[in-house]
Amino acid sequence: MTRVILGVSGASGAMLARACAQDLAHRQILFDLVISHAARRTFETECTPCALEEMQKLAARIHEVEDIGAGIASGSHAISGMIVAPCSMRTLAAIAHGFDDNLLTRAASVQLKERRPLVLLAREAPLTLAHLRNMTLVTEMGAIVMPPVPAFYLNPPSLEAAVNQIAARAIDLLRLGPGRAEAWVP
């Protein structure tokens, strides 16, 4: 069965992580979950008290961010790709510069070195020149930088619908099967 990694960093947008986890589970794609300390705090601020626990229940495995010796830190571990949702600028910079200082950034680096899909839902606005240069670096290394911009042309009826569309699109970018994100039809 297909297995991916869902990394969650501390940028605003915890609902993006939750939507990705729910969509992966709906597609019956197993996922390993790595959550930064800052992401745990963001969940407390932005979501219901049980949201983090509910997301963790969907994961096949949960890894501590400090566990640099986990299987997903090795290229020999059978993984089909990774999404970081949301992806803070700190995490993006660490990936861009090879600072494998925790399991989330190490697992992302492994995806790049093994030429596996890595999708980064980069969360920040406005962007500094450092952010843009780091986005260029990771793109040149093979990552896909996907700011979580709603598909306004679909006229989403709610914030939840817009977030679910973004999550579906991110998962589709892993190219694990037929796309499920709603497409624009002229």
TrEMBL record:
Domain Flavoprotein: 3-171
TM spans (from-to): none
Top-level taxon in the UniProt lineage: Bacteria
InterPro entries, sorted: Flavin_trans-like (IPR036551), Flavoprotein (IPR003382), UbiX-like (IPR004507)
Binding residue positions for FMN: G10, A11, S12, S36, S88, M89, R90, T91, R123
GO molecular function terms listed in the Swiss-Prot or TrEMBL record: flavin prenyltransferase activity
Pfam families reported for this sequence: Flavoprotein
Residue sites binding dimethylallyl phosphate per the record: Y153, R169
Substrates-to-products reaction catalysed: dimethylallyl phosphate + FMNH2 = prenylated FMNH2 + phosphate
Entry function: Flavin prenyltransferase that catalyzes the synthesis of the prenylated FMN cofactor (prenyl-FMN) for 4-hydroxy-3-polyprenylbenzoic acid decarboxylase UbiD. The prenyltransferase is metal-independent and links a dimethylallyl moiety from dimethylallyl monophosphate (DMAP) to the flavin N5 and C6 atoms of FMN.
Homology family: Belongs to the UbiX/PAD1 family.
UniProt protein name: Flavin prenyltransferase UbiX
